[in-house]
Backbone:
């Protein structure tokens, strides 16, 4: 603008600096991310994920989270079941649902709803590997079907028991004579003698699949 300016090398440097600053200043854009105004350098490849990173949106809230795992011991072996996967983050761009890698431009309005955690892992005794459901024995010449039991932390539980974190589970492939009596609602005091596979036995004798059992009652 000045007509008497000397056009030499001293003039080139400050002009170059000014032009470079002007170009850089115009390479930035502003977007609204979850109601927060942020500034990004525009490299012509900007996506929602870039805005999320700059806004310090937690990375774990972008992708599905697994529910808590279930850890327990089965027949002396450590078991771990993974929780279910949750839902991915929901992403909105200018009021329309979008992908996290969708391109963005100046003044875009971005809203990201955090991802969710899935359900905690769960297991019941009846679904455990190796659980076959029932034991069949012969009692007094009649077939009797007994639901298989499990010992959990030293206590007997049914097939419907919901396993808890840290449980120690042992699948039982037998009943004791006393347990058979309790299943039949027969009191131990009323039993005079017991035979298992035609041999005299006691109330603590173990009875396995296809064994035969008979009682002699005191009032018989």
Residues:
């Amino acid at each position: 603008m000045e007509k008497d300016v000397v056009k030499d090398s001293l003039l080139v440097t400050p002009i170059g600096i000014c032009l470079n600053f002007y170009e850089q200043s115009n390479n930035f854009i502003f977007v609204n991310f979850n109601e927060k105004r942020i500034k990004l350098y525009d490299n012509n490849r900007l996506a929602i994920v870039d805005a999320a990173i700059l806004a310090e949106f937690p990375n774990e809230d972008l992708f599905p989270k697994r529910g808590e795992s279930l850890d327990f011991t089965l027949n002396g072996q450590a078991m771990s079941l993974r929780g279910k996967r949750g839902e991915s983050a929901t992403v909105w761009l200018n009021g329309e649902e979008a992908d996290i890698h969708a391109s963005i431009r100046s003044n875009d309005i971005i809203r990201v709803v955090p991802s969710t955690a899935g359900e905690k892992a769960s297991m019941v005794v009846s679904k455990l590997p190796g659980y076959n459901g029932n034991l069949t024995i012969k009692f007094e010449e009649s077939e009797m079907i007994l639901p298989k039991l499990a010992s959990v932390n030293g206590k007997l539980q049914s097939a419907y028991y919901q396993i808890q974190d840290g449980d120690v589970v042992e699948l039982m492939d037998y009943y004791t004579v006393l347990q058979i009596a309790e299943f039949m609602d027969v009191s131990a005091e009323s039993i005079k003698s017991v035979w298992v596979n035609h041999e005299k036995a006691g109330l603590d004798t173990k009875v396995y699949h296809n064994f035969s059992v008979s009682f002699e009652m005191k009032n018989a």
Summary: The helical segments are 9-25, 48-54, 177-183. Residues 9-25 form the longest helix (17 residues). Residues 153 and 181 are 23 Å apart (CA to CA).
